[in-house]
Amino acid sequence: MYVEDIFLQNTAVNYVILLLTRRIAKARIGRWRMLIGAAIGGIYAVLMFYPRAEWAFSTFAKLIFSLGLVWGIFGNRSLKEYAKTIVIFYFVTFAMAGAVYGFMSLAGITGETFPLKTLAISIIISYACITAITYSYRRKTLLERNIGALKIRRGDECVELSALADSGNELPIAIAEFAGVKKLFPKEFCAEFERCKKDDYIALSELIKTWKNEIKLKVVPFTSIGKRGGLILGFVADSEFAGKVSKGQVIGLYAGKLSGQELYQAIF
Description:
Layout: H1 2-25, H2 31-46, H3 59-74, H4 79-106, H5 116-145, E1 147-154, E2 157-164, E3 174-177, H6 178-181, H7 187-195, H8 201-210, E4 217-224, E5 227-241, E6 244-254, E7 266-267
């Protein structure tokens, strides 16, 4: 039963590693293929306890085995994609091994095999943590690739904000945090705008009438996910983003924060 435990435990861990590798690498690999690969890894782990198979566990042999395993499971891809998959596979392997054994150490469990329940809990926690970390990193990287400097000019005043180029923006205008563009307006206007309740058409209309001779303002209706009949106050200004200059751009004033992590202050 001891050998069977080694096989089953290693197969389970190997399967989770391959599952995470597939997810991060965005590879289209069937589960049966991964299960077979995980089982081969489990058999390889069992061989460790046979004296005549010592040669199979040298550093070189382990490297060749892992490279061959990844090729066999994730093959039929370009060399570049294969290299990327290898890097992801090793990252997940080391992260998973460290997380599982770290959890076991905290639980005070030692030995070659672990209680099935404890192993299952540690694998689930490790899977969740690695998934969350990679998702957060990928999301942040994707955002940073689409963030650039947005210059907004009104009269003689100009401000520069970090802006997200969002092709999914359903508004027909750009959006900027009011705090980032306050410099472009008189203090009296800023005070009045901050007192206005959002979506209050009457209050926004009065604000436009009061400042119509000094500031070009517009009330823009919009519909977004989870919200219908929304209103946003916009002003007309010149803008420049990614080398493209726009004259008479309508820019909506948003009273709150557009990014919880403060990665950008405008959506363009």
